[in-house]
Every structure is written in C-alpha cells, then in structure tokens.
Amino acid sequence: QLQLVESGGDLVQPGGSLTLTCSATGYAPDYYGFGWFRQAPGKEREGVAGISGKGEATDYADPVRGRFTIFRDNAKHEIYLQMNNLRPEDTATYYCAHSRTWFPTAVPPWSYYTSWGRGTQVTVSS
C-alpha cells in the first residue's frame, strides 16, 4: 500500500510562488498516476493537476492551467506541484493522491484517485 506525505505549504503573498512535494513510499509507486487536489474551507475537494506514471502526460484544472506545473522524479518517488502567480483563491489545503490502478502513460480521471495524504496548507494573502 502506498503512503503519501505532502510538504512545502506556506504563507505567500499574491503573485508569489511555492513548490509542493509529495513523497510516496510503498509498492511500485512509479506505475501509478498521481494527482494534486485542494480543499478550501466550506468547499468541496477539487482536482488541480494530474500526471501519468512515467511523467509524460499531465493535465490541469482550468483555474490553475498556465500557472501550476506538476512533475515527478521517479528515482526519488516524489511528485511536485510548482505554483506560480498565486492568487488568494488558491488558498486551501493541498493533498496528493495516487490512482486506483496503474496508469503508466495516461493521466487518471479525477474520480480514479485514492489514498490521499494528510495535506499541506497553502495560504495566499498580503
């Protein structure tokens, strides 16, 4: 069973940047697709970015497209979310999750994820 730990959340000013890290341990994490999700207070959790097992395919939610980049280092079993030009509406707890089945070459649909980590808090405020 994969275990996920997120880190890198912080307080940042609007327009600033952050990089989140998801560390994965367990059986064959490289075969799974991974996704970053977020949940703001009073709102439902939403998908932000997804990446295939080999890291060759990515997808993004419209609100973050062009500002966020998901990438992974399979040698380190880590998945990253580079966030640029942050906005107050990006404030949320960010979680990573892995796909329910192997997704080596395609990005899993948002409904195909499981086993979220405990999250890391991102606050965008002046």
Write up what this structure looks like.
With 126 residues, this protein is mostly beta strands. Helix content is 0%, strand content 49%. The protein is built from no helices and eleven strands. It has strands at residues 3-7, 11-12, 18-25, 32-39, 46-51, 58-60, 68-73, 78-83, 92-102, 113-114, 120-124. Strands 2, 4, 5, 6, 9, 10 and 11 form a seven-stranded mixed β-sheet that branches. It has a four-stranded antiparallel β-sheet with strand order 1-3-8-7, with no helix packed on it. A hairpin with a 6-residue loop joins strand 4 and strand 5 (46-51). The radius of gyration is 13 Å and the shape is globular. It starts with a strand and ends with a strand.
Main beta-sheet strand count, sense and barrel state:
7 strands, mixed
Tell me, what's the shape? globular
Q: How much is the average pLDDT?
A: 94
Broad structural category: mainly beta
Contiguous runs where pLDDT drops below 50 for at least 5 residues: none
* Chain oligomer state: single chain
Give me the count of strands: 11
Computed CA radius of gyration, to the nearest angstrom: 13 Å
User: What is the N-to-C succession of helices and strands?
Assistant: EEEEEEEEEEE
Distance between the termini: 40 Å
**Portion in strands:** over 45%
DSSP helical segment count: 0
- What share of residues is helical? under 10%
